[in-house]
């Protein structure tokens, strides 16, 4: 969907029923069809056969968060199968509406040329402020599977971004809004060293500009905070090489049900390469999957994570969006994105993933899961200054649909002190 010029907005707003009608038609479109492969040139290959089964799964979209507010709409997931009746690729067009951004059109796609390769893209454009253009690639077919290559390229803008100040107990009265506009890439190569150990080398780039936000009822960030108070509020660039040592005993690289994971990462941002300042990220992450029966119907999952950001000198001004951050769909799910910012954070996520049933719907076999969870975390100046009174406790519940080998749709409802938040997306949160 293309953003309309300002002089056309009135004509667009005269026809809001058009988008709602389109969303309604999407919801009614569930079916299974057979289409010639010649009509699907970019999302099929020889493994799909000459006649391709395409399953259409319509879904409503209803989400709310402290940052964006309420978003409602609909999507249709087109699951394209190969001759083994496995999902080869996925296309998911979506239409939704949010009072702050107007109507948004989105097209998500995922293609699996082989079991070892995956390509994803997301194209999204709103009427106001927001857009998101992303591409990801993952390849584990090299060196007999001993080398994994990953790449991410993105250009996006988020007009709902919030800043409350630094440290753990930032009051709601300090809430400000801005638009975070970024161009970014993230590249990595991971080598298998033997006996579950891996070495990862990578590089991360981001160019960030800060502009007026879309939430008119909330002050702009520079109305309450100066550039001296908030480093990076006038924009910044990051060039960060990265090295990680990883241990993994997962039984699957895409949807594990058993095993442990540990990662130690060092990532310096280098001013000589074009970064805003010289500073360093240190991160330690532990994850585990513990099934409670042979059928793996009940799986306890945990993540413990510590992150610290340090400048090279006491006068280093680390950009605020490069510091240690909690809040959002993958960390503290009872809060909006980037709710808490400081030099360090400590985070614990606990989930009990319960497979309720295995159900075939629209000729697709999916595992339907219930996942009660607890998110527990805090930001702090340093680990030795952690205080129990600063930790946030976010209970919640997740609803998941899993189509193997690598598709997960989820709805997570978390509760924090700012109220409930509902996140809808793809993939597990950790």
Report on this structure.
It is a single chain. The protein is mainly beta. 5% of the residues lie in helices and 58% in strands. The chain contains three helices and 21 strands. It has helices at residues 9-13, 16-27, 221-224, and strands at 31-36, 51-65, 69-81, 87-98, 102-111, 117-126, 131-142, 147-163, 176-194, 197-211, 236-248, 259-269, 279-291, 298-311, 324-326, 340-342, 344-361, 364-380, 392-403, 407-416, 419-426. The strands form two sheets. The protein has a 19-stranded antiparallel beta sheet. Strands 15-16 form a two-stranded antiparallel ribbon. Strand 17 and strand 18 (364-380) form a beta hairpin. The two termini are 31 Å apart.
- How far the N terminus sits from the C terminus, by CA atoms, comes to 31 Å
Count of DSSP helices? 3
Work out the oligomeric state of the chains in this entry: single chain
Q: How would you describe the shape?
A: globular
The SSE string, one letter per element, is HHEEEEEEEEEEHEEEEEEEEEEE
- Going by helix content, strand content and strand pairing, the class is mainly beta
The profile of the biggest β sheet is: 19 strands, antiparallel
Give unreliable regions as ranges.
1-16
Strand content of the residues, in percent? over 45%
Mean pLDDT: 90
Helix content: under 10%
Q: Specify Rg, calculated over alpha carbons.
A: 22 Å
């Amino acid at each position: 969907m293309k953003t309309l010029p300002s002089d056309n907005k009135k004509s667009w707003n005269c026809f809001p029923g058009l988008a709602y009608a389109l969303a309604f038609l999407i919801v009614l479109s569930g079916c299974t069809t057979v289409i010639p492969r010649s009509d699907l040139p970019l999302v099929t290959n020889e493994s799909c056969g000459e006649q391709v089964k395409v399953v259409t799964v319509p879904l409503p979209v209803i989400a709310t968060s402290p940052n964006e507010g309420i978003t409602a709409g609909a999507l249709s997931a087109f699951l394209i199968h190969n001759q083994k009746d496995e999902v080869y690729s996925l296309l998911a067009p979506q239409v939704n509406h949010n009072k702050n951004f107007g109507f948004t059109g989105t097209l998500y796609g995922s293609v699996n040329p082989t079991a070892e390769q995956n390509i994803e893209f997301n194209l999204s454009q709103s009427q106001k402020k927001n857009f998101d253009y992303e591409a990801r690639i993952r390849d584990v077919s090299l060196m007999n599977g001993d080398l994994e290559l990953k790449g991410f390229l993105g250009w996006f803008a988020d007009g709902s971004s919030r800043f409350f100040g630094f440290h753990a107990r930032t009051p709601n009265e300090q809430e400000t809004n801005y638009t975070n506009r970024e161009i970014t890439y993230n590249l990595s190569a991971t080598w298998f060293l033997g006996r579950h150990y891996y070495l990862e080398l990578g590089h991360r780039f981001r160019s960030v500009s800060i502009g007026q936000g879309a939430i008119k009822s909330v002050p702009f960030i520079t109305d309450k905070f100066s550039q001296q108070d908030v480093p990076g509020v006038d924009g910044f660039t990051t060039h960060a090489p990265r090295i990680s040592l990883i241990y993994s005993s997962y039984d699957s690289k895409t949807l594990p049900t058993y095993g442990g994971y540990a990662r130690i990462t060092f990532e310096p941002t280098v001013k000589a390469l074009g970064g805003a300042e010289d500073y360093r990220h240190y991160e330690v992450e532990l994850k585990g999957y513990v099934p409670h029966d042979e059928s793996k119907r009940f799986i306890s999952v945990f993540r413990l994570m510590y992150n610290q950001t340090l400048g090279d000198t006491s006068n280093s001004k680390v950009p605020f969006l490069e510091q240690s951050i909690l809040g959002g769909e993958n960390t503290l799910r009872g809060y909006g994105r980037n709710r808490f910012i400081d030099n360090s954070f400590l985070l614990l996520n606990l989930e009990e993933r319960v497979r309720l049933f295995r159900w075939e719907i629209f000729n697709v076999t999916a595992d339907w899961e219930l996942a009660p969870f607890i998110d527990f975390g805090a930001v702090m100046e340093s680990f030795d200054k952690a205080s129990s009174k600063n930790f946030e406790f976010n209970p919640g519940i997740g609803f998941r649909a899993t189509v193997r080998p690598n598709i997960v749709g989820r709805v997570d409802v978390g509760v924090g002190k700012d109220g409930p938040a509902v996140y809808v997306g793809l993939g597990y949160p950790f």
